[in-house]
Amino acid sequence: WMQQSVRMVCACFLTEHLNIHWVEGAKWFHNCLVDADLAINSMMWQNAGKSGLDQWNFTMDPTGKAQDPDGTYICRWVPELSKLPSGHVHAPWLAAPGVLTAAGVDLGSTYPQRVVTEDLLALRQHNASALRASRALHADQWSDGRGYDLVIAPKGSTTSVDGKKVVLFTTPVLRKLGGHGGDQQGEAVESELLEGEERAVGDAVGARQRVSVVARASHGSVRGLR
Fold it and tell me: How far is CA 36 from CA 2, 100, 204, in A?
């Protein structure tokens, strides 16, 4: 079992920083979580991967500073770091060698080295740029001209537009189509998303309560598209 915010941190890190397909994360969670639910798990991961019906309009700091500012959660569940000063718990690789030694932390031995060493913001911007470039390839068919995604509503999913294209919410960082040409706007939006992380997490948790909207999206059909 994992706390909700930790699940979202994992999803953002996998899709936005490691640039790994959301399906891989969905499969792993479904295999490991004791409360795994096919519809909810698929919906949340698809939205994290910026290809769902309700794309996440926020990002999560993979170091956990916003969610766990004093490191209490980390120290409880990662006891290898519990003796570090609170200022170094979120990023032990930045601590001085003497501080690590005093806390019994040996990077690469008692605690693993980082998966990536690149700047996290740069990694996220690279991912967004790649997504914009990919979406631009079919913008004439699957974008409404404002940068919003379009999808064909499956039979039985609506009361009036079955079989027709409907507009989906699309996160601002992806609405400007193209590759590197959209980076300047994308960087500004990224900063806004990071600053509003705490507020947006509450919205994302609320999205779980609206799961009926996409209860069968993972199987290619939607029952309650509104």
Answer: 11, 37, 18
What is the spatial distance between Cα 223 and Cα 226, in angstroms, rounded to a whole number?
9
Is pLDDT at 103 greater than 90 in this prediction?
Answer: yes
Please determine, for residue 209, whether its predicted confidence score (pLDDT) is greater than 80.
no
- Give yes or no for a contact between 56 and 9, defined as CB atoms under 8 angstroms apart: no
Neighbours of 77 (CB within 10 A): 13
Answer whether 0.90 is exceeded by the pTM. no
42 vs 48: CA distance, rounded Å: 10
For residue 31 the two structure tokens come to 């295999």
Average pLDDT over residues 76-92: 95
Tell me how far apart the alpha carbons of residues 101 and 109 are, in angstroms, rounded to a whole number.
12
- How many angstroms separate the CA atoms of 214 and 37, rounded? 13
Tell me the per-residue pLDDT of 127-150, one tens digit each, with 9 for 90 and over. Answer: 999 999 988 898 999 999 888 999
Concatenating the DSSP letter of every residue in 133-164 gives: HHHHTTHHHHB-SSS-BEEEPPTTS-SS-TTS
